[in-house]
Amino acid sequence: MILRRVPDRGLHQALRNYFLQRALLENELFNRVDHLWTSHEELLDEVELLRSNEKALRQQHAEGSSFDISQVAKLRQELNEKNAKVVTIDGYENVPENDENALKKAVAIQPVSVAIEAGGRGFQLYQSDGVIPVTNMGYSYLR
Fold first, then answer.
1. What's the CA gap between 1 and 55, in Å, rounded?
2. How far apart are CA 73 and CA 67, in angstroms?
3. Is 136's pLDDT higher than 60?
4. Structural contact between residues 111 and 104, judged by C-beta atoms closer than 8 angstroms
5. pTM of the full structure
């Protein structure tokens, strides 16, 4: 092996690392090319399938067969069922500050939305688990 004849161990190690790195890069490049080739073949198969489907549709159209309208209606109904509204929100109420009972009532009715002021440095730099002390919140909470 050529590397065994190199007298300088540092140079020997550098050359060895260089060749290993090149081998790894070559292997990665080969894998990417292989993946691209496989993807290319899959795309060609899809194009062929689309062309054959197009030919079949043209042939059906030429023979005078039409698309079944009931299928369209069924697909529309399925789509409408998937997009149907489950819940509507028709109003809102504000919960008074520091009123735990009012918050409990609001949670019982549901849904509840909460807004927090996250602009203060105490909130942004908080790193511990648990509840953030009120003194670390933004200015409006200290009124």
1. 62
2. 11
3. no
4. no
5. 0.30
Check residue 43 and give left, alpha or beta (phi > 0: left; psi -120 to 50: alpha).
alpha
For tokens 């648990």, name the residue: 130
- At 6 the pLDDT is 52
CA dihedral sign of residues 139, 140, 142, 143: positive
Give per-residue pLDDT as tens, 6-57.
Answer: 566 777 777 787 888 888 888 888 888 888 888 888 888 888 888 888 887 7
Q: Whose CA is closest to 97, among 110, 114, 122?
A: 114
Q: What are the sequence ranges of the domains in the chain?
A: 2-82, 100-142
Return the structure tokens found at 54. Answer: 């197009």
Written as one letter, the residue type at 10 is G
pLDDT in tens, 90-132: 777 788 888 888 888 888 887 777 777 777 776 677 677 666 6
Q: Can you give the C-alpha Rg of the chain in angstroms?
A: 34
Quick check: bond before 133 cis, omega within 30?
A: no
- Whole-number Å distance between alpha carbons of 43 and 51: 12
Max Cα–Cα distance, the chain, nearest Å? 85
Single-letter amino acid, residue 106: A
